[in-house]
C-alpha cells in the first residue's frame, strides 16, 4: 500500500530527533531512580544527570551549527548571531521559528517558544514536571553549543511553566578583549 | 547575513539526529571506560551498554513508525512491511533508501546500506571499530521497534566491515497462531 512514491507525509527526522531526546531523558531518569533506590533524587544526583544532558546538547549544538554555517559569511554582531539562532537554526531543527525574542541590549536575550518541539512528546504526561528540569537541560546545552561555535560564550537557562511552552534566557558572557 | 528567507541549505534535522546518536554512543562509551577503570571492557559491561542503546532504539523506532503509519492502510504481508521499512522509513529518517534488499523467502531479510547515515559521523575516526558494536546497537533496536509496531517480531543483527557500510540481518520470528 505504501511506497516511497506514494506521497505519504513522512513524519520527518525532526520527529525522530524529538523522540530520541525524549528517550534520553527517560533513560537518565530511570538511571537516577535506580541509583537512588526509588526515593526522591538528591540535589547531587539531579545535577549529575543535568550535566550529562547539557553536555550532550552542547556537543550536538556545536557540531550542528558548524555544519549549518560552514559556507556562510561571518556575522556582523551578537544580535545577528542570536537572530540566526532564533530563525534559521530553530527552523532547521524544530520546523518553526521562535515566537518571541527580546533583548535588553546589554547581552541578555529572552527567547520564547510557545510550542517547543523537544518538549512536545513530554507534554502528554505530567510525570516530567518537577523532575529537576531534566527536559530542558539538553536544549539549553544545544543553544549554548550553537552560540559557542559562533564565537559567543553564554549562560543559558530555561523556564517552563506549562509544557510545551518554554522561555530561554541567554546571558552573554563579556569577551575579555 | 543569514536569515530564514535567504535560502541557506539547512543542515536538516536528520543531521541533528545523527549527531545526537553519535553523542549517545560516545557518552555510553565514556561511562563504560570510567566504570571499567580504563582497561578493556568486560563482556558483561559491553552487553549492558549494548542493551541500553538497543532499548532506546527500539522505543524510538516504535514511536516513530506509529506516527508515520497512523493514517496508512494495513500492509498485506511481511514482504510489504519490510519494503516499507527499506523505502519510506529509511528515506524519512536517513534521506535515502537502502541500497540492497535480499530475502530467502523464509523470513530472513538482508538489508545493505552503503552509506548508513547514523554511522557517517563515526566514519571519521577508527576509535569506534571493535568497540563492542556500540554503534550498531541503536539502529538494530530502531529497526526492531519499527517492525514490532507493524506486527512483526524479529531478531535484528548488524555487520560492519568498513564504516559507513552496514549489513543488517532481519530474522522474523514465526507467529505462534
Would you write up a description of this structure?
- The structure is a homodimer.
- Helix content of chain A is about 45%, strand content about 15%.
- With about 180 residues, the first copy, chain A, is an alpha+beta fold.
- Chain A has a single domain, classed as 2-Layer Sandwich (Muramoyl-pentapeptide Carboxypeptidase, domain 2), CATH 3.30.1380.
- The first copy, chain A, has a 4-stranded antiparallel β-sheet with strand order 1-2-4-3, covered by helices on one side.
- In chain A, helix 1 (about 15-35) packs antiparallel against helix 2 (about 45-70) and helix 2 (about 45-70) packs parallel to helix 4 (about 135-150).
- The radius of gyration of chain A is 17 Å and the shape is globular.
Write the layout of secondary structure elements.
The structure is a homodimer of 177-residue chains.
Chain A: H1 13-35, H2 43-69, H3 78-94, E1 100-103, E2 108-113, H4 134-149, E3 154-159, E4 166-172
Helix pairs in contact in A: 1-2, 2-4
* Biggest interface, residues from each chain: A-B, 46 and 45 residues
Number of DSSP helical runs of chain A: 4
- Report the sheet with the most strands of chain A, covering strand number, pairing sense and barrel closure: 4 strands, antiparallel
Strand residues, percent of chain A: 5-15%
Q: Which of globular, elongated, flat, extended, rod-shaped describes the shape of chain A?
A: globular
| Oligomerization | homodimer
Spell the H/E element sequence of chain A.
Answer: HHHEEHEE
Broad structural category of chain A: alpha+beta
Give the CATH superfamily of chain A: Trafficking protein particle complex subunit 3
Range of helix content of chain A: 40-55%
Give the neighbour order of strands across the main sheet of chain A: 1-2-4-3
Organism (chains A, B): Macrostomum lignano
Family (chains A, B): Belongs to the TRAPP small subunits family. BET3 subfamily.
Protein name (chains A, B): Trafficking protein particle complex subunit 6B
InterPro entries (chains A, B): NO_sig/Golgi_transp_ligand-bd, TRAPP_component, TRAPPC6/Trs33
